Structure formats: structure tokens, C-alpha cells
Amino acid sequence: QVQVVESGGGLVQAGGSLRLSCAASISIFSIATMAWYRQAPGNQRELVALINRAGATDYADSVKGRFTISRDSAKNTVYLQMNSLKPEDTAVYSCNVRANTGAGYSDYSGQGTQVTVSS
Length: 119
Fold this sequence. Notes:
By secondary structure, the protein is mainly β.
């Protein structure tokens, strides 16, 4: 079973920054993609940022230019640097890992971490 653990959430004022971390208990070479999703109360879960095995990235339009996804392959960890945070960024952020554990690709997610941006 792949374990996915997020950290780094918290309370920050608008305009501030936070960095989220996501560590996966599987070799980076088995991972196809690592992505951050978020869900605010009453809203649908949305993809925030994604990085694939080749290092290509993709972002939601609402965070382009403010958020940066990166990875440390040696630590099987992906980061989400969030700058110029806005109150509408408030949500539970969760990490999704798509990996091949030998029986095809499956998705694994962590418990999530709360990000609250005050105005």
C-alpha cells in the first residue's frame, strides 16, 4: 500500500506564502504523476497543479503565476509553493499520486492539509 503524507498547511494573511509538501512511500520511478487538488466547503474538488514523470507541469488558471509545483526525486516528495495567496485559495489541499505498484496504475491520496487565507 502506498502511503501519501501531506504537510505544510496553516493560516496565513492574504498576500502571504505557504509551501506544502507531499511525501510518497514509493520509488519515484514508479510514479506517473503527482498532483495537488483542493476542495473548499460547498465546492467541487479541483486540480491545482500537476507534475509528471518527465517534469512537465500544469496549473489551474486561477493559480498560474502564483503557485509552483516542484519535486525532489531523491526524497519521493513533491512541493507546492504558494505565493500571493488570496482568501479564495482557502481549502483542504490533498496530494494525489498515480503510481504503478506492479498491477497497473492506481491513484493514492493523503488525508489533506488545511490552508486558510485571511483577508
